[in-house]
Structure formats: C-alpha cells, structure tokens
Specification:
DUF1269_membrane; alpha+beta; 6 helices; 176 residues; five-stranded antiparallel β-sheet; Alpha-Beta Plaits; transmembrane; globular
Amino acid sequence: MSDLAAIAYRDVGTAEQAREKLFELQKQGLISIRDAAIVEAQPDGKVKLHQARNMTGAGAAGGALWGGLIGLLFFAPFLGMALGAAGGAVAGKFTDVGVDDGFMKKVGSELRPGTAALFVLVDQVTIDKVATELAQYQFGGKILHTSLSTEAEQHLRDVSQRAQDAARAQGARAAG
C-alpha cells in the first residue's frame, strides 16, 4: 500500500529541489517513490502541475514502436509508426497514474499565489533519514495532507521538526 504526503513550500524552485533530493534518496534505497508531482499556485491564480513523468511522450514512443512492428506486417512500417505514435500520444495524454490530478489541482487552488506543494506517493520510506536530508528544504514547514494514520502523521511531524531544528542550529553555528 502506498502513502501520500503533500508538503507546502515557499516557491516552486524549493519544491523542485526537494523532489530532486527525493529522487537521489531513492537511488540510495531510503525511499521508494511511486509518483512525485509539484503543484504551483501561479500569481494569476491559475494552478500548474509539474509532473515527474511525461505520459504523452512515453505513449508516443510506445505507440511508434508497436505501430512500426504492426506496419511491418502490412509492408508500411513508416505509416504504422506515424499512426502508432499519434495514437500513443493521445492515449498517454489522457492517462493519469499516481496522484490524482484533480486532487492536486484542488489543493493547489488553496495555496497562496507564488507558493507550491510537493505531492509524493511513497511505497516505503526510512522516515528519520529522509526527513533529515530534506530539512534544508523546510520539509517540516507545512504538511498539507497525508494518508498516514494519526500516529504515523504525528511521528512524521515530530521527525520533521527535529530535523528542521537541527538544520537551523547547524546553520547558526556555521554563521557564528
């Protein structure tokens, strides 16, 4: 079972840095991410989604491959590739995997303009180590939503606050 967390950030750049850090931590085996998307509340009031995966491009590539193979059977591989790519792109455009886009847009509409939220769908996580690594991005700043139990969510908040306090203390020692 996957767990969902939505974390607010002061801007889209910080949310992107946090997402990239999560991908690094995934390579280290500290977290297993099913989806990681950013919602940006733009100054004009619109909500923009920054998906981690481009399903349109993946659909087009897959469609071109299958279309080319099927086209070979009918001695028209280029026509098959073109038709397959177009069909795959359309299918990919309407495919929604991971966190529901409608839910992300709803939460994004409640953000202050200029801010962003990172939505992470996680299969497993070593929360203490991940929270410590993300403290520099104000991980504990504002947890908007989780699918965790009440106890697990409180643990996440506590770990995040401790990591953030430790990062502030370290920054103060370095400055002083």
